[in-house]
Design brief:
By secondary structure, the chain is an all-alpha fold. Helices cover 48% and strands 2% of the residues.
């Protein structure tokens, strides 16, 4: 089975919930004075990264409702006074939305390639892999552990394998930075980070 077909026929919702737990475990360790720190994503401070994920959760939920084409639905995240509560609430919102949609439903995702529509099965896999790697972004920023299970890493590598790597697909204004070369014998976790434009050795 080719990689894309496998993603289209896989129900990522249980894995997405596990990835949400991984992400929230990292966010739970964020202290208020860490919000201004730089992250592995050069465009964002930690506050900006957490706000981005809330916005993405809300955007995916809007896509399930049939309102994904409205860009404002992807940029309206607000952390308020409690970033963890905001993260948990937005993840509950998108989890509930995913649970109620058919895997072959078409979701419009305006920030990905031509906007779709993409089958919900594929869209959920995109949300899933974002959570896994953003959990690392948060953990790396605050020097906390990042310990995804092997099932999360294996599934994430399958999603990462279909992310385009052309010059027009990576870099500023796109979802991922260019692929980082992996050392021989790199662990699956490190290969995942490198495939999605992150240096596993990044430190503040």
């Amino acid at each position: 089975m080719d990689p894309l077909t496998e993603l289209l026929t896989t129900d990522f919702r249980p894995l997405d919930r596990q990835a949400a737990d991984l992400y929230l475990a990292a966010v739970a360790q964020v202290k208020p004075d860490a919000l201004a720190l730089p992250t592995p994503c050069p465009d964002w401070t930690l506050h900006g990264l957490l706000r981005h994920q809330v916005s993405q959760d809300q955007g995916f939920a809007a896509a399930v409702r049939g309102d994904g084409a409205r860009l404002s639905n992807w940029h309206g995240g607000d952390l308020g006074d409690d970033p963890y509560a905001a993260a948990a609430a937005s993840l509950d919102l998108v989890t509930e939305a995913f649970a109620g949609t058919a895997l072959d439903a078409g979701l419009v995702l305006p920030e990905i390639r031509d906007g779709g529509p993409f089958p919900a099965s594929l869209a959920i896999s995109f949300h899933f892999v974002d959570l896994v790697v953003h959990a690392w972004d948060v953990a790396a920023t605050i020097s906390a552990p990042w310990e995804p299970g092997d099932d999360l890493v294996t599934a994430s590598l399958k999603v990462a394998a279909i992310v385009p790597t052309g010059a027009d697909d990576r870099g500023p204004g796109t979802s991922f930075a260019p692929v980082v070369p992996s050392a021989d014998g790199a662990s699956p976790r490190d290969r995942l980070l490198a495939l999605l434009g992150r240096s596993p050795s990044w430190t503040r």
